[in-house]
Amino acid sequence: MADNLDWTNADLDKLDVDAYAARAEEMAARLSQETAAGRLPFLTMPYAASLKEQLGELKGYLKKFDHMLLLGIGGSALGARALQQAFFPQQDQPGHDGPYLWIADNVDAYALEAYLAKLPAEKTVIVTVSKSGGTIETVGQYFILKEWAQERLGDKWAEHMLLVTDEKQGFLRGEVEQYGIKALPVPDNLGGRYSVLSAVGLIPALFLGMDIDALMAGAREVADILADPGLTGDALKKHSSFQLAVWGAALLDKGFDEMIFFAYIPLWASFGDWFAQLWAESLGKEGKGSQPVPAIGVTDQHSVNQMFMDGIRNKACLFLTCPNLPAGPKFPSDLPDQFGYVRGKDFGELIQAEGLGTRMALSKNGVPLVELQMGEDGPRQAGKLIALLGAATILTGWLMDINPLDQPAVELGKRLAKARMDADGLAEEKADLNEFLTADRDIREF
Ligand code: PA5
Fold first, then answer.
1. Structural domain total, the chain
2. What CATH number does the domain containing 171 carry?
3. Would you say residue 435 lies in a domain?
4. Which of 167, 193, 210 is the last residue of a domain?
5. Ligand 1 atom nearest to CA at 200
6. Is residue 281 annotated as a catalytic residue, yes or no?
7. Structural domain for 277, as ranges
């Protein structure tokens, strides 16, 4: 079955989409220019062949381990988690006995203590993922795990480390050189939230035995046309990523400043977190953008859905479905009359009915909605989804006249935290902190 976008309830007639659609030629030219300059490896994937080779070489090495502890944060972790949840749910199910992927993407002393106390060093590979090689949440954990590995494994500690970082620069690159640690590069110009289809997401995927070729092939189906140097405005106009971008930009003009990502493929729920980072870090600029709201079907029908249906009318929705989810067990046929409508039916019928019900209800309640209907819930479709949403995000940013590839506003909090830890320099931040902390505070016990 084909993968489709259903635009029926997108409310295109109520939005000024023409003004944005008219920029197709300009956007096509920009794509050609940026891809030619090597600034969009997310779409061109020039690294794909060498990465395939490197992953092939890594396969045997990874087989030696039962546990992979991935240290990373933001774009260096969210894609890996989405893939893990979607294609390796076994780890959260009864009876699983490996392999295990643990993703340490927070400053969580409780979790870290548990890893240190319980992971068997001989059977564990520690994968540190940081493009910059300097993110304190990640590198801080690396320091602790390095000491842990040295204490337990002696001279062999470096054999249990794998680094994914910039090819040339950063602290972690220095570690590669100093200790001869195995490393795979994060390609130039590939920002964290666009990097799941590089070593960043594919090393954990390989460890868990996912079909990486299918994932990459799916992404190419969507991205190749955008990466074509001869891309025309007419071809771009027909591309779903551009159509989503036109819709996304036009929604903002009408005050739709929240974008729900409602996943009715339960195992794909973590793509909501991946999408949230992609959309928020890329588009939240210069007072513009829409707040991504990840939601899980059907779970969140009993949670935040009331707000979607009847709260402030500022929400649009990307609604992810797959008509070919597993049927699951059958409901017994001797159910009480009250539940007669499910007697003998497949358990899986329920999610389809509830998805339909929620989708219709959202539309009736004035939520512009595009259904992302995946023909199957396999890795090829996941690759297509990743490429589609990544490209749509970049194009939405360009149509909004902002830069979707940076995230300057997140730096201030990081600098203040460093100042708090008494890092060198940062005199201005230290003075600001002092002022903040010594101001009269309004504190009330509860
Ligand atoms: O999308 C991004 O660029 C960020 O979320 C980064 O992935 C995150 O800040 C981690 O950065 P790094 O990989 O350099 O440690």
1. 2
2. 3.40.50.10490
3. no
4. 210
5. 13
6. yes
7. 4-35+216-399
Q: Is 122 a domain residue?
A: yes
| Ligand 1 probe mutation, 42, 70, 73, most atoms within 8 A of CB | 73
Whether residues 170 and 309 fall in one domain:
no
Q: CA 158, 58, 381, 30: dihedral to nearest 10 degrees?
A: 80
Give yes or no for residue 281 CB within 6 A of ligand 1: yes
Gap from CA of 134 to ligand 1 centroid (Å): 10
- Residues 299, 369: one domain? yes
The residue whose C-alpha atom lies closest to atom 9 belonging to ligand 1 is 74
Backbone φ and ψ of 343, nearest 5°: -50, 125
Q: Are 132 and 202 in the same domain? A: yes
Where is the domain boundary, 210, 225, 253? 210
76 CB within 6 A, ligand 1: yes
Q: Who contacts 84 (Cβ-Cβ below 8 Å, separation ≥6)? A: 91, 101, 103, 204, 205, 208, 270
Looking at the fold, whether 178 and 87 belong to one and the same domain comes out as: yes
Asked whether the CA dihedral 8, 11, 17, 18 is positive or negative, the reply is: positive
pLDDT at 124: 98
pLDDT digits (tens, 9 = 90+) for 237-296: 999 999 999 999 999 999 999 999 999 999 999 999 999 999 999 999 999 999 999 999
If you measure from the C-alpha of residue 208 to the centroid of ligand 1, how many angstroms do you get, rounded to a whole number?
Answer: 23
Nearest CA among 140, 193, 195 for reference residue 164: 195
160 counts as catalytic: no
- Cα(382)–Cα(150) distance, integer angstroms: 38
Instruction: Give pLDDT tens digits for 190-247.
Output: 999 999 999 999 999 999 999 999 999 999 999 999 999 999 999 999 999 999 999 9
Cβ–ligand 1 distance for 239 under 6 Å, the answer: no
Residues 379, 258 share a domain: yes
Model pLDDT for residues 131-146, shown as the tens digit of each residue: 999 999 999 999 999 9
Amino acid at 116: L
Question: How remote is the CA of residue 42 from the centroid of ligand 1, in Å?
Answer: 15
Statement to judge: residues 177 and 57 lie in one domain = yes
Annotated catalytic, 302?
yes
- Chain-centre distance of CA 393, in angstroms? 12
Ligand 1 atom closest to Cα of residue 132:
14
For residue 339, report the distance from its CA to the centre of ligand 1, in Å.
Answer: 49
Helix residue ranges, H only, 228-347: 233-238, 240-253, 270-283, 305-310
Under the banding of pLDDT at 50, 70 and 90, the label for residue 329 is very high
* Verdict on whether the full-model pTM lies above 0.85: yes
CB of 390 within 6 A of ligand 1: the answer is no
Q: Is 132 close to ligand 1, i.e. is its CB under 6 Å away?
A: yes
Q: Which atom of ligand 1 is nearest to the CA of 281?
A: 1
For residues 88 and 21, state if they share a domain. Answer: no
Q: Is residue 410 part of a domain?
A: no
